[in-house]
Amino acid sequence: MPEKIYIFDTTLRDGEQTPGASLNVDEKLQIARNLELLNVDVIEAGFPFSSRGDFEAVKAVAREIRGCQVAGLARAFEKDIDAAWEAIKEATQPRIHTFISTSDIHLKYQMKKTREEVLEMAVAAVKHAARYTANVEFSAMDASRSDLDYVAKVFTAVIDAGAKTLNFPDTVGYGIPEEFGAKIKYLVEHIPNIHQAIISVHCHNDLGLAVANTLAAIANGARQVEVTINGIGERAGNASMEEVVMALATRKDLFDYYTDIVTQYIFPTSRLVSKLTGVVVQPNKAIVGANAFAHESGIHQDAVLKEASTFEIMTPTAVGIKKSSLPLGKLSGRHAFKKKLQEMGYYLGDEELNRVFFRFKDLADRKKTVFDEDLVSLVETEVIYKSVPEHFKLLDLVVLTGTMVKPNATVKMEVGGEIKSISVFGDGPIDATYKAITHLAQSKCKLLKFAVSSITGGTEAMGEVSVRLEDESQIVTGQGVDPDVVTASARAYINGLNRLKFSKEMGPKLGKPEEL
Ligand code: MN
Fold first, then answer.
1. From ligand 1's centre to the CA of 402, what distance in Å?
2. How many angstroms separate the alpha carbon of residue 435 from the centre of ligand 1?
């Protein structure tokens, strides 16, 4: 009988520690809903003690998500554990995840404590957490660089104190698969009460080995893996959920394990996480990159057309990359359009469908071929991203540019119901447009990042623009899509301004949470 591997998703906690990727309450909820569709076992929703905003986000996830366990992270302090419990207690299956460092290097330089003191703190923390719930996870930070016998001693003691999951993190991404797997085996063999708990691993990708180390750990007895969508996370990131899950699913001949992940939601979730965090997926990224299923060589293409398994070890549809058979043109009606979107996995309400259909007709008038990717992008920008009210609305944009003129943009916008317009010069067409919008919106926000990409090849491709805006302590991303990159840029900026206006207050972070 194959054994189950528990998927502990930390996209909303470690993933959010990706530089510049902070998420607000609504964004965390959107991702959590997708994680529930993916059917992960545990969602680590955040670190409640670290900030008011994180506390609120974890609470919102715990309230809404019914199908997964919801974990809150806490240092081995009572006040952290109390805050974590307060945030997660409404979950169907709340989990307190407490941690302390066990490596001599951390004990000496970071904590200035002895091994005995840390052992006592770990036991006290787990006992305190266990008063709230039987579902307690304990992590030994920097475990892979800790003395293994000391980790075994701490794990033995915290199991007695009530921990049900023991996490062995490769916090700094130092492990090598064979060695890392051997450490897990050693723990299984040297912890007398290990049958009362399950071993988890949390691998970082500093040497590009996070997934390999995770698989080695599974082969040696780990039954929970801590992973993130797209492998995002602190520094070089965490083990990628899609890679671990698909490795287990594709090599069933080698691994006698299974996960409960509904793999068809992998790709849509990857897109959502990338959009909301503003962290782009590299094209050659395994499983979810734009080229992951693209065959360039003629020999390969020919063979794949004859029989896909010649060069494809898994199918794009297995991970939710959908190609549909219905071509759409500018004469396509609303019914065909709706059917097409459903084929692609989007079931929209009437109002949403009308909005996307309107944009589609406009697009079909201006662009020869409307690709599936264009539709995905339209749905994402019109539905997923338009989840905020439009206080600012672009009505009209006229841009004059070229080698002989100073770029000029005339923008007409609705601001809180009032129609305003202005004409402004800039260094380039996008600069002029942004200056005009900034003036009309009376915004003081700072543009942290501006990125343009084309969805499909060719000059008629749709331009996708992603911006990051900062206003006082709040950071949001905005998205825009249009065949015209200047218009897409304007849409992205205005989308960001609306998000800044309506996103719930995150409040300032207390400082970066320590890393596991
Ligand atoms: Mn980590």
1. 48
2. 40
